[in-house]
Structures are given as structure tokens and as C-alpha cells.
């Protein structure tokens, strides 16, 4: 029997492929809130999808950073990470890492190893691989951090533009355990204080047997 995480990935992908992203939406966000302090509004586990008729500022900032790296180096920033020190798990299709300059302790990114701008373009086998890896990452976080509240979000390119026009964009799934409250400095500056080095978090998660 397939794990719910695998079915979840296939379901969310199918919604996007079936035209959920038609105008006026310019961007779409697939996300899950687990636990009251992570914003969960219902007791049972659930995920949500929202679209906006504009590109949010944080998305614009991320895309501009990716574009800047691509124009300077001629390579996609997420295709180019090489350090094994931040690797948590690798499959045929994906790498799970603790990103450099992570905003949150034990934050994880699941990144396609093959360059891809849009989440909804993955095929069934890739979706199965992603679901299995997502299940493993959530199990590792639950084991290490005692089932913490968390959010995960799928960051995909804006709709209505072909992948060939966005060679610098690369979709990824971000998992954020909610381990501490966000204070005035973080809200006011947009900068986050992370007391855990990414290499240390990656090593701990790598060594967990899940």
C-alpha cells in the first residue's frame, strides 16, 4: 500500500496539471501546516493550495536571486550545489539538503536533481520518488525533534511562462520545523537567527535511521 505522502504528491500534481493554474492566477502555492503553532486550522492532517493574481514579493526576490546567479555563472543555482556536508539523503531523482544560510533550525529542501522549473511537470515515477523521500524526511524530523509542528511548501515557477523562458528557476519543496517563535527583529528586518549550523543539522539527520 502506498504511503499517504506518496498519494499526496500525486494528488497535488494532478490538480495543477488539470488546469488549476489557469488565469487569473499567476502563482500557486501548495503547502501543509502541521500543528497549531504552525498555523494548522483543523485538528486532522490536511494540505492547502492557494493561487494569487500577482507574484508575491518573496517569490520575486527569490527569482531575482536565482536569475542573478544564472547571469553571473551561466548555471542554475540549485543545480550547482556540490557540498556533501549539507546532504541528508539522495535518491535517483532528488537531493534532500539542509540549505546554506537556512532561516530555520533543521530546515530541509528537497531539490530535483534534473533541472525543472515546474512541480506539475513531474511524471508518475518521479512523484513516487518524491513522496517516498518526503515521508523519510518527515520521519527523521519527527524522530529527532519529537514530532514538531512544521510547514512544508512547494516553490514552483510562476504560471504562464514556458520553462525555456525561465532557465534559472528550479522548483523545490521546503520543510520548516517550527521550533522557536519569530520575534521583532525577524519581522522588522526579514533576517532570521538560526542557532544550528546547517552542516551539523545535516549530519544529525543523515545519521538517523528512518
What is the secondary structure topology, with strand pairs?
Elements lengths: L3 H17 L6 E8 L12 E6 L4 H17 L13 E4 L3 E4 L10 E5 L11 H22 L4 E6 L16 E6 L6 H6 L8 H10 L3
Antiparallel strand pairs: 1-2, 1-6, 3-4, 4-5, 5-7, 6-7
Helix pairs in contact: 1-3
InterPro entries: ADP-glucose_phosphorylase (IPR053177), GalP_Utransf_C (IPR005850), HIT-like_sf (IPR036265)
Protein name: Galactose-1-phosphate uridyl transferase C-terminal domain-containing protein
Pfam families: GalP_UDP_tr_C
Detailed description of the structure:
GO terms for molecular function: ADP binding; UDP-glucose:hexose-1-phosphate uridylyltransferase activity; zinc ion binding. The protein is an alpha+beta fold. It has one domain: HIT family, subunit A (2-Layer Sandwich). The protein contains 5 helices and 7 strands; from the N terminus they run αββαβββαββαα. It has a 7-stranded antiparallel beta sheet. β3 and β4 form a beta hairpin. It is globular, with a radius of gyration of 17 Å. The mean pLDDT is 85.
